[in-house]
Amino acid sequence: MTSSMETVPVRYARWDGVGSPFRVVCADTPLVPGPGALLVRIDLATVCGSDLHTVGGHRPSPVPALLGHEQVGTVLGVGAGGVRCVDGTPVVPGMRVVWSVTASCGSCERCDRGLPQKCLRLRKYGHEPLVESAPLTGGFATHCVVLPGTAVVAVPADLPDEVASPASCATATVAAALAVAGPLAGRRVLVTGAGMLGLTATAMAATAGAHVEAVDPDPVRRAQALAFGAAGAHAATTAAAATAADAATNTTNITADGIREFDVALEFSGQATAVQACLDSLTVGGTAVLVGSVSPGAPASLDPERVVRGLHTVIGVHNYRPADLATAVRFLADHHRTFPFADLVGGTYELDRVDAALTAARTAAAPRQAVAPRV
What we know:
The chain is α/β, with parallel strands linked by helices. The chain has helices spanning 49-55, 109-112, 161-164, 170-181, 196-207, 219-227, 239-249, 272-281, 304-309, 322-335, 354-363; strands spanning 7-14, 23-30, 38-46, 70-78, 96-103, 123-124, 143-146, 150-154, 188-192, 211-215, 232-234, 262-267, 282-290, 313-316, 345-349, 368-371. The protein has 11 helices and 16 strands. Strand 10 (211-215), helix 6 and strand 11 (232-234) form a beta-alpha-beta unit. It is globular, with a radius of gyration of 21 Å.
């Protein structure tokens, strides 16, 4: 029988602000966490683009902090009252899980409106101020305390860690974007930005029966988009911008090949020019889903007459609902052998080399770099 006073040794990578290296800190934490919480051993974490933005000073963050919010782990302890997965399955020690990037209160006005991802008392893993008495709120650590109000999904045994880890941010966010985009079978879908989210969206939309065209200035990412189900991959969405790049890389411009309008445009790059391209590409009744614009940037132009006459819908997606995380894991479990998801994660850095993992993430062809904590 486990004693409520039993503790386990833990380590975490403390970040002290822009320009400071990560520093590994040792501590102890109770094996049995508080009511409704979980203690999870982190088996693998991946470096997300927002981690890079935080460390580079391009997005506000509390300091000090424990970063990282894409991870997969094994449950060690369950708090009083128990915890259930999104599908209702009780969480038990030994279960392999991923968990949402957010913890919601479940009772505020936004939660009541079905917007738990924008809870008024929201807490976000990897984005909270570091409290030394309870530091385990991020992925760059040997363990995480998963708080009450966090969506938890069990991970099938045959789903590799490097495929499962991004589910808690990248894959679930894409699932949220496609959920609001409407039915995709037989529709023309534009994906701008072929990073981790864009490649995942390409695979999901193609699997749903859509004709997908991906846009990214990077030729490596364009090649990856084709491997993830895109019917075409392009350097730009206008003939003027694409002529030189497409001629050099043997790709066909979207305008030139006759695909001028799209039923759905999914934007993941956060670039104003890509946002504009998505808005301008919509056919009558089309929907633009904007996901990548999570930092201040140049504005895009919206023609209200075109929106009105075109019956256009423009939707923003930020964070996601619990059901989206379940969809993400299910999709990866069903299709990780069809699409090369494992190839999107490179490196395996131990906890004392988080700085090296972030450096590699800025330049590597793989959209994610892995951190494998060791006790």
